[in-house]
Amino acid sequence: MSRTEAEWSQRPRLAPREYVSTQIYTDPDIFARERERIHRAVWKFACHESELASVNDFRTFDHAGTPLVVVRGPDGVIRTFVNSCSHRGALVVREAAGNAAHWTCLFHHWMYDISGACTAIPRDQAYAESGVCKAESGLRAVRTAVRLGMVFVNLDDTAPAFDDYVGDAFEQLEPVMGAEPLEVIQLYRNVVNANWKLLQEVQMELYHENLHFVNRQVAMGAPGYFARKWKIYPNAHGTLEPMQQKYEVIAGWEQRAEKTLPGLKPGEFRIVDLFPDTCIIVRTTVMRIDTMVPFGPDKTLLESRGLGIKGESAADRALRTKHHNQYWGPFGRNYAEDVIAPEAVHRAIKEGGTPYGLFARHEDERGQDDVLVRSFYAEWGRRMGVAASDPKARAVRAAE
Amino acid sequence: MAASNDDIRGLIYRSCLHLDAERFADYIALCADDFRYCITAYSPDLRKDMVWLDLNRTELATLLENVPNHVRLPGKLIRQASVYTIEPNGGATVATTTALIVTYTEPDGTSRVYAVGRYHDRIDVGGAAPLLKSRDVRLETRDLGPGSHVPM
User: Fold this and answer.
1) Which residues of chain A from 210 to 249 reach within 8 Å of chain B, CB to CB?
2) Rounded average pLDDT over A371-393
3) Is residue A348 within 8 Å of A356, Cβ to Cβ?
4) B36, B39, B40, B43: which to substitute to probe chain A, counting the most A Cβ within 10 Å?
5) B33 touches chain A (CB under 8 A)
6) CB contact under 8 A, A331 and B39
């Protein structure tokens, strides 16, 4: 039976933790608040160490509106700096990646080394009166942590240490990513017309898997699919019990029994969701790290990295790449739907669609239970000081 | 009879028309038995080439057969191709370079450029009709939105 406008607009008769207001996806004030209270305050996946394989290798990226450059120093240590000249703020490093022992700002040629120190100010005698000097003009250092080859940064110098933030959430990844060096073999960057949380939700709930022609067969048809238990960690990270999926049910696809990543059984699938916007998926022979760079409430850069084993043979790399592309990348059989669906939500809600999104599935925290999404929004609410079910409320109350 | 350059261009253009219209069986019929299809792009982030698709004829045919089973973008892709060069490639084979622009038109009628790149084809011209032996789609575009279940 359809509903009247009044019925449709009223709050769901659910516990507040079981639904969100769709304003959280569209409101610019909420987005701005998220940037300050969440994105600038937590550890953020930046890149994989293999993207900085050699001394002086660097990568640039944007995080929470701040341009950053990550670089491997002569001592092998990976460091991060705000990529903005101390003189007038211009981008110092304009390439996406490269190798350089020093950087020169294009504008007035101030120079920096890869420790972030300012090493040259042209015609600096004119600063004698004001006292501007190299010693006090270094780039701003940003906290950096590397774990299992993944590089994380944090704009907040007072935030808890990385290990405290992640805790045991990487326990399923330790055998996979800790045994041998991995490297990025694919990078797909896609600006999505949707709020970043809609993309992260897709990785936190399985109820949408009927959307996928491939997953309906490979995953949902495999034994134990619905029995897997979610595990929630402090700070709302989450993992799902591993299972073995049946890739061979797709015509022309192999079982994925050979060349498994370390520690995995044939066909094994693992997933780790890191609050707020990173997801790591392991599909037996290849894995993917997703992270997001929100540009606005309605626009998000989604970065998907495929990883294989560093230094493997060409034949092994070709097999791993093939397995990666079966699912992921712009021509993968599974990737598109996970973007099309969030964009479809955003298109409807941005100007008057459904006012509430429901996360009310309870299945003993197994399978298609929404427990991880509810945990996500509990943490979101704690950091934002408002409930996701009522983000415009004046009362400062953590979501249940 | 050896294929003329017009025959070769016609093959390439028909391959585009068949994919545009999603006449997948007709597209596969243009491909030799040992056909290999690749989509590659250079990543300035990784400073290396990426292989986004690498399929033989059978694998490509199966992929295309399953396209209707997927949830897809609702609009239409149209390929614009211009054959730049046709060069001998040894034996009864020629190598061609074709500029490619793919446009995407939304259901509401707005169009945009979806992808830009080149086809690097090897074509068997020794038979009754020319057949594609290999196609390397070299894309400059690296943001293809949600992606496409239909190759370029």
Assistant:
1) 211-213
2) 97
3) no
4) B43
5) no
6) yes
The first and second tokens of residue A223, run together, are 């034994």
C-beta contacts of A112-120 below 8 A and 24+ residues apart: A112/A81, A112/A138, A112/A139, A114/A56, A114/A58, A114/A71, A114/A73, A114/A74, A114/A79, A115/A73, A115/A79, A116/A79, A116/A81, A116/A140, A116/A141, A118/A86
Q: Which CATH number covers residue A113?
A: 2.102.10.10
Nearest neighbour of B45 by CB, restricted to A187, A213, A332: A187
Quote the domain boundaries for residue A79: 44-163
Which residues are CB-contacts of A45 (< 8 A; sequence separation ≥ 6)? A150, A151, A152, A274, A278, A289, A291
Which of A121, A140, A163 delimits the end of a domain? A163
- Residue A3 token pair: 């509903």
**Are B73 and A251 a contacting pair at CB < 8 A?**
no
User: Are B50 and A186 a contacting pair at CB < 8 A?
Assistant: yes
Is A390's Cβ below 8 Å from some Cβ in B? Answer: no
Say if A186 is an interface residue toward chain B (CB within 8 Å).
yes
pLDDT at A235: 97
Angle at A330 between CA A308 and CA A214, to 5 degrees: 80
**What are the structure tokens assigned to A392, written together?**
């415009």
Cβ count within 10 A of residue A399: 21
What sections of chain A are H helices per DSSP?
5-9, 23-26, 28-34, 162-166, 174-178, 196-202, 213-218, 314-327, 335-349, 371-384
Per-residue pLDDT, B1: 52
The count of domains in chain A is 2
Q: For B95-108, what is each residue's pLDDT tens digit? A: 999 999 999 999 99
Looking at the fold, whether A243 and A367 belong to one and the same domain comes out as: yes
Return the residue of B nearest to A336 by Cα: B146
Instruction: Say if A393 falls within a structural domain.
Output: no
Using CB atoms, which residue from B62, B145, B151 is nearest to A252? Answer: B62
Task: Choose among B90, B91, B98, B95: nearest CA to B116.
Answer: B98
Query: Contact A77/A71 with Cβ under 8 angstroms?
Result: no
Co-location of A290 and A223 in the same domain: yes
CB distance from A329 to chain B under 8 Å? yes
- What are the tokens at A195? 């709020």
User: Which H or E element spans position A154?
Assistant: strand A150-154
Confidence of residue A180 (pLDDT cuts 50, 70, 90): very high
